[in-house]
Every structure is written in C-alpha cells, then in structure tokens.
C-alpha cells in the first residue's frame, strides 16, 4: 500500500513539474513583454478575484477524495508548506490574499490548478510565483530529477513487461493453434470445395479421436498387463507366411490381438523374503509368505470393466458432441443476414502470409457462393399431375433400392452359410477361403451405391442437399442390413468363437479399406482421365459425400463391434483412418471438382454425428451387451472361460468382496438391483431417450420463437417503409398546391 501511494505521489510530482514547464512555455508575446497583461487593473484586484474563484471551486470539490486524504503514516508529507492553512474566510486577517491564493491553488487538483493559472491575466513570472513558493520550488527541483528518472524507469519496465507477457501469450496461443491436426489441408478443402466436402474430413478426424481413446484404454488396462505376464502357449506355433496380414489368422491368433490369448489368471506382483521383487502370473496361488503385500490384477474383471467403461465414456462423449452440434447447426440464421456478415465482417486482418491470404479469400468466396445459391433458390410450384408423377418416380426408385438391398443381404446370408460348412484339406487354401465373405461384402458395398446414384438421377432432385440426405439414408439401409446378417452369422459357430469373430471383423475392416482404395483409384482417378482424354469432358467427377461418409460409419461400427473380441482393432482403425485421410485428400485435390450447384450444408455434421450415435454406436452397444449378458463364453479360451456369462465375473467379484468384508454387503445389494436386473437398464435407456427428446423439443421451440421474432422484425420494417411512403406522398400533395399558387402569383 505504501509503495502504491509513493508511486502515485511521484507520478503527481512528475505531472506537476511537467505542467509548470508547459505553463512556462505557453505564455504569449504580450505576457512576456508586459508584467501586467491588463494595465487597467491592479495586481491586487486580480489576485483578490481569483482567490474568490479558487475558494468557490474548493468548496464545490470538497466531497471529492484526493490523495492527500491518506494518513500521514501511509505517506510522508512532502509539500508541507501551506497544507494546513485551509481555514475559513476572515479567520486570519494577517495573512495576505496572495498567500491564501497560493494555498488555495495548491489545495486544488492538478487540472483545476492549470486551468486557473492559464486564465489569470498575469505574466509568466507572476504565474511561477503563484504556482510555486520558494520552499516548494526547492523541493520540486530537488525531486524532479529523481521522480523523472523513476517514472521513466517505471514506464519502460511496465511497457517491456506487458509487451513480453503479451508476446509470450500470443506465441503460446499460436503454438496451441498449430497443434491442431490437419489444419492447413482442411482450410484448402474448405476454400476449394465448400462445407460439404469439408464435413467429410472433419467427421474422419472425429472418428480418429474416438479410436485413439479406445486404443489408449484397452492398451493400458488389457494389452499391456497381458503382454507383461504372457500365458503358457502351446509348444508348436504356426510359422509366419505373410497371408496373416490379410486374414488375421495364423500366428496372429496366439497374440494379444485377440480375445483367446487372454488368460483367466490373477496377475500378481509379489515380494520375496529378501525384499526382492518378482512378477508372477498365478491363477489361484496361496503359497507366498507375503500375501498381505501382494498386488493382484484379475484379467477377467479388468476385461469386463475396461470394455464397459470404454463404451460408457464413448456414449457420454457422443451425446455431448451431438447436443453441441445440434445447438450450433440448428440455429435460425437467415441467409441474407449471414451474407451481409460474410461480405463485411469475415476478413481477418491479422493474416499476412500470401498462402494464408489466398486460402482465406478462396474460403470466403466459396461460402459467398453457397449463401447466394441458397438466397436465390426458388421452389417451383408443380401441378397435381406433376406431383403425382414425381411421387411415382420416387416410389419406383425406393422400390429398386429396397429390393436390391434385400437380394444382396439374402445372398450374403446363404454364402456365409456355405463358407462355414465347406472345409478344404489344404490349410493354406482353407485360410485363404476366409477372405471370400469379406470380399463379397466389400464388393456389394462398392457397387450397390452406384445403383442408388442411378435411382437418384431418375428422381432428379432440385436441391443438392436433399439428394445427399436421400443417398445417406439408402446407404445406411444397406450397411445396417449387412451388419445384422453378419452378427447373426458370427455368434456361436465355432469352438473359440470369440477369436473367430475378432478375425472376421479384422478381415472385414481390412477388405473395406482395400476396396476403398480401389474405388479411389478406378472410380475417381482413372474415370477422371477417361472422361478428360476419351470423352473430351472438361468437368471432373464430384466427390460423393454420402457414400464416403457411410463407409466411415461402417468401418467405425466394425471397430466398435470388434473391440470386445480384438482389443487391438482400434489401432488398426487408427492406421486405416490416417492413410485414408491423406489418400482421399490427394484424390479430392487432383481428381475431383466443386459441385455444379454450390449449397450450404449447415446441418450435415450434426446428421453425421447422429448417424454415428444411433444406428452405429447403439447397434454395436446392443450386440456387445447381449454378448456379455446372455451368450456363454468359450470353455477353452479367453478370460471368461468356466463362467456362464461374461457378466458373471463382476457378480463373483462382488460376492468375494462381501465374503471378505461383510460391511460391503450394501455394494452387493446395489449391484444386484442395479446391474443384474434388466429393468434398470431399460429405465436408464428410457430416461436417456426422454432427455434427448425434451432437448430436441426445446431446441425446436427456440427455433420457432426466433423465427416468429424475425418475422415480426421484418413486418415492422415493412410498416416503417409504408409509413415513410405515406408521409412522402402527403408531403408531395401539400407542396403541389403551394407551387400552383406561386405560379399563379407570378403570372
């Protein structure tokens, strides 16, 4: 506090002295030549007049706090002279008006003192005498050098420190901004192709984060502990032939990649009598002397709770992302207002690099094209006959899509049944035959969307966004049907069926990636060359957003289904998404072009997240939950061998806790009522759906209210225009007779 008061005093002294120098240099020529500017008035009259003015000004400013209101213990008095001479008028008749004027001036603030001195019709010497008495002049002159230097140092240090802090903060923000994944490629795609293609790559980036989370969780709690404590493996191990990279079988079966490798033992970290530490893998060991100091890690419990918590946290993240995306995309924003904002307020003047300026200009230009296309879009009113004709075309297109999907799904079911029954004598051919079903499914997923695009061409949608949404729904119908048949085919077919399902999911994920690469090569690159060289078309093919997004959702559904049977499948999905991003990015920039009709896709990211949550994650969660709660695990492999269900591992653990400590019986009862009974799960799911429904209704109500308010604002604007037009017409009517009268008078 004392330092603050001292700095304030030094600052006040500095400004006082600067003011004195400014007054000295601001005198006019008449003031410098004549000791009295007004020869008709005496010096005493002038001093008496301005003494009265200063007294009035002081009385008005008595309620204002000043720095001299601080106690003397807080700051020592430097002025000293004349500070205690503030007494009423006429109390000390011996003190001259001049001295009282000096005292009054010094009790005024700096601004009032300067204003009063400048208004006095006195010379510079007289103003100096009134401004500073001799003792104060000595004090100011003695402190001037120190205060000036001190204030200069304070100013320089504050400036340098603030600039350093600001520069470090900006550098830190720039560093954090540069850590964002794929920042510059996404800007290039947005500037060249618009928000539709950009939403695909943003969705791919979101899936990458989900798989990274799954990989970290399963790797830390499942893969790493089992890799440190490997189980006993058979002496004869299959050699590596290279085909395992495609099939996922062979030597990969005896690795941490699949469910069957994990043991049902309790991993112990025990201590010897001599204090040394060793790691053991014991299922039911009780022969250690330091049992109380032993740390155990039960793989069955770790497997059950790791998968359960991973799905639970993923569900929370998905719901939060979906709600946030709903709030951002379903706002009521008229295209006219957004167009004005983009035209006048979208440029960032901090961008100075040529590449960044070019990217920003392309991005703004593309967004303006999308907004203008939305503003200029006009709905065509069709007649009744045209509407019936369009309904017939839509019905025919949907019939073709549904019948073709049903035929393909039926073929997949019978072919999978045939493959499961046929056995080859050659083990190499038998292993290669495992790729037949994934190849067939991937081929159907590649070719059937072309038929869907042909049906969409028949329907001839006016809006590109509506066409995209219809294509998404048809591709989603295909993917869900195929996955349903495959899930029915996988469960309970072989002895160690969990590892078999994990291998199947690995093969499907790998074949999906290979056929995506083939589609990128033949469907985009070679077709672009063929149309340019042979067909002589200048236009390149457009990027199919719906099909590519559904391929991502299909692959992510496989990853979620396989994390129970293949804990390392998220790592394979991460590698696939990384390669797919760079391949698709290069293909889009080289082989594709922007759509003919620019359109703004404000809600597409929200629709992608919604499809990822409900058909994809919800379906995978139902399959995994049904497997853990209802299906009996394999007897010969896995951490749940010997149990009736995977869920029984948690039940036995709770019973063991209650047996060792009866006080934990409350936990056992809570587990029995909340987890074992399916009613709690149904109630929780119902509450979850009700919350989502109410949230959507609230958002929809807010949208309607905002839309009504905007309509009211538009109506008020129209009313103002109408009133202004009426006033102008009335004014013109009044002016017309006046003009006629003036013309008649002139005549």
From TrEMBL:
GO terms for molecular function: mechanosensitive monoatomic ion channel activity. The chain crosses the membrane at residues 139-163, 198-224, 301-321, 396-415, 435-455, 476-493, 505-529, 549-568, 574-592, 604-629, 679-696. It is a multi-pass membrane protein. Belongs to the TMC family. InterPro entries: TMC, TMC_dom. GO terms for cellular component: plasma membrane. It comes from the Eukaryota. The keyword Transmembrane helix applies. Keywords: Membrane, Transmembrane, Transmembrane helix. The gene is TMC6. It is found in: Membrane. This is Transmembrane channel-like protein. Residues 496-602 form the TMC domain.
């Amino acid at each position: 506090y004392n330092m603050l008061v001292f700095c304030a005093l030094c600052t006040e002294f500095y400004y006082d002295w600067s003011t004195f120098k400014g007054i000295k240099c601001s005198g006019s020529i008449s003031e410098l030549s004549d000791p009295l500017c007004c020869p008709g008035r005496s010096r005493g009259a002038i001093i008496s007049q301005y003494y009265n003015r200063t007294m009035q000004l002081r009385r008005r400013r008595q309620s204002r706090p000043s720095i001299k209101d601080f106690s003397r213990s807080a700051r020592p008095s430097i002025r000293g002279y004349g500070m205690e001479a503030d007494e009423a008028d006429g109390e000390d008749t011996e003190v001259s008006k001049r001295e009282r004027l000096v005292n009054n001036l010094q009790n005024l603030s700096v601004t009032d003192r300067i204003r009063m001195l400048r208004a006095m019709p006195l010379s510079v010497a007289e103003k100096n005498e009134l401004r500073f008495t001799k003792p104060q002049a000595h004090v100011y002159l003695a402190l001037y050098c120190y205060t000036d230097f001190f204030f200069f140092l304070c100013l320089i240090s504050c400036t340098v420190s603030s600039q350093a802090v600001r520069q470090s903060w900006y550098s830190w923000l720039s560093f954090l901004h540069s850590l964002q994944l794929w920042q510059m490629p996404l800007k290039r795609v947005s500037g060249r192709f618009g928000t539709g293609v950009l939403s695909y790559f943003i969705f791919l980036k979101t899936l990458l984060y989900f798989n990274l989370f799954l990989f970290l969780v399963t790797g830390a709690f499942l893969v790493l502990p089992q890799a440190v404590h490997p189980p006993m493996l058979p002496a004869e191990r299959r050699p590596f032939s290279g085909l395992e990279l495609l099939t996922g079988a062979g030597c990969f079966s005896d690795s941490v990649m699949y469910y069957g490798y994990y043991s049902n033992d309790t991993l112990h970290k025990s201590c010897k009598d001599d204090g040394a530490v060793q790691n053991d893998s014991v299922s039911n060991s009780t022969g250690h002397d330091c049992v109380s100091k032993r740390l155990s890690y039960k793989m069955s419990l770790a497997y059950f709770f790791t998968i359960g918590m991973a799905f639970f946290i993923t569900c929370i993240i998905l719901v939060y992302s979906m709600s946030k995306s709903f709030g951002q995309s379903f706002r009521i924003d008229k295209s006219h207002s957004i167009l004005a904002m983009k035209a006048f307020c979208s440029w960032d003047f901090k961008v100075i690099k040529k590449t960044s300026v070019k990217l920003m200009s392309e991005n703004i230009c593309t967004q303006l094209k999308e907004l203008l296309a939305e503003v200029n879009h006009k709905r065509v009113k069709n007649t009744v006959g045209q509407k019936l004709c369009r309904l017939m075309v839509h019905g025919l297109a949907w019939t073709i899509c549904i019948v073709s999907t049903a035929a393909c799904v039926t073929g997949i079911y019978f072919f999978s049944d045939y493959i499961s029954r046929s056995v080859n004598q050659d083990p190499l051919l038998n292993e290669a035959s495992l790729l037949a079903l994934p190849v067939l499914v991937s081929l159907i997923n590649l070719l059937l969307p072309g038929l869907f695009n042909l049906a969409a061409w028949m329907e001839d949608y006016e809006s590109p966004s509506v066409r995209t949404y219809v294509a998404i729904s048809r591709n989603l119908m295909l993917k869900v049907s195929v996955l349903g048949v495959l899930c029915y085919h996988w469960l309970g077919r072989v002895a160690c069926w969990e590892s078999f399902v994990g291998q199947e999911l690995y093969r499907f994920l790998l074949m999906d990636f290979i056929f995506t690469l083939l589609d990128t090569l033949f469907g985009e690159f070679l077709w672009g060359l063929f149309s340019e060289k042979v067909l002589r078309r200048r236009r390149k093919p457009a990027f199919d957003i719906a099909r590519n997004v559904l391929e991502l959702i299909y692959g992510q559904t496989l990853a979620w289904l396989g994390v129970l049977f293949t804990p390392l499948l998220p790592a394979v999905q991460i590698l696939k998404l990384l390669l797919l991003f760079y391949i698709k990015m290069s293909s889009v920039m080289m082989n594709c072009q922007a759509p003919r009709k620019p359109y703004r896709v404000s809600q597409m990211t929200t629709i992608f997240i919604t499809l990822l949550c409900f058909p994809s994650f919800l379906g995978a969660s139902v399959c995994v939950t049904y497997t853990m709660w209802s299906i009996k695990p394999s007897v010969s492999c896995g951490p749940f061998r010997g149990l009736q269900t995977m869920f029984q591992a948690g039940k036995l653990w709770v019973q063991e806790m209650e047996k060792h400590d009866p006080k934990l019986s409350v936990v056992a009862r809570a587990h029995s009522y909340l987890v074992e009974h399916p009613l709690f799960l149904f109630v929780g799911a119902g509450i979850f759906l009700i919350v989502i429904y109410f949230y959507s209704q609230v958002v929809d109500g807010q949208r309607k209210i905002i839309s009504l308010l905007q309509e009211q604002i538009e109506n008020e604007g129209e009313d103002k225009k109408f009133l202004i037009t009426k006033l102008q017409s009335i004014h013109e009517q009044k002016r017309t007779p006046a003009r006629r009268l003036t013309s008649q008078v002139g005549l």
